[in-house]
Amino acid sequence: MVLKRKKTKKNKKSQHYVPRFYLKYFSSTKDGKNICLFNIKKEIFIPSASIKHQACSPNFYGKDRVVENNLGKIEGVIANLISEILYLKKLPIQYSEKHLLLLIFIISMHSRTKYSAEELNESIDKTFKIIFKDHPEVKDELQNFKIGIKYPATFSLGTALKIVPVAFDLEFKLLFNKTNIPFITSDNPVIKYNQFLEYKKVYGGITGLAVKGIQILLPLNPYFYIVFYDQGVYKIGNKKQRVVEINNIRDINSLNLLQFINANENLYFNKDINQIYLDSLSKQGIKFRREKKINVNEYISNNKFDGQKSSLILSYAEDIKINLNLSFIKFLKKAKRYELGNKAVHMRNERVSKIIDLITEKYKTLPRKIR
After folding, report:
1. Please, what is the Cα angle at 166 between 163 and 172, to 5 degrees?
2. Is residue 315 part of a domain?
3. Total count of domains within the chain
4. Does position 334 have pLDDT exceeding 70, yes or no?
């Protein structure tokens, strides 16, 4: 008797880079299985799409599913926390364990998306090509290849989790949408912005986790947004007010516009958003959409090392800049008096600098994103 090996399908399980439990908060159906979708590139409105097939890609984190399984365990805990926040309309106490969990969720969500994965590989590709642009054996072939790593989201996620302590000093509040226009989300839902340094016209990246004026925003459902921010620069609501009500439709539209600009491919929302509204967002936001995800520049020094000129390669994210103006965010007087001087990097405070030094010592190298 001859035993034949049973044919099996290739192990290509879809892995979500935006959690399914999160997308369900924006579901267009009571069973939480469907969601409304708008594809930005094709300008296609889909009134009912399966959440199961959104924001996912085959073997996105690797075939062994180790990262996926560990993310699943974390998401179970986080889902309960988010549900508690939405039900109670109340945020965790600052510096508590739940505060840390919330921060881990948001920073990991930002780093695990397809956008972030593409950003990392774009950085690797551009840096490699600058370094080897004059190498006699490869210089003529460089433009024929894309250089990167196989599972960039896994690498990006691992790095991000190491630098969570850098953002632990940020204040955080809940924004409560009291208008009739719901919040929307996307396949790249965590927005990093910096109104303060945008206003100051600083060169280079301005949304590193340790940078002065950083703002991190995420919609939790159509009615609530969470915002982490530098309390040394901004005032949001009253000092003791953890939940800030928004009655200004212009503010809602601005936050939804940011989602449109920040999205990689798709917007997600419930049935109360229509095609006319999306067309309006597209018309306003298309000019702010990023054509590239990362900037990599080389600065050549006049000084020589071992007979050759040395150079500095600077890499930083392509940030969103739309001259954002939100009625519920005010600049503190001391922030307005801040002088840029000749600093290349504007750190938030000395405490953050010390944390970075400790992390640097432990891990030896740090991504430039945090600075």
Report:
1. 120
2. no
3. 1
4. yes
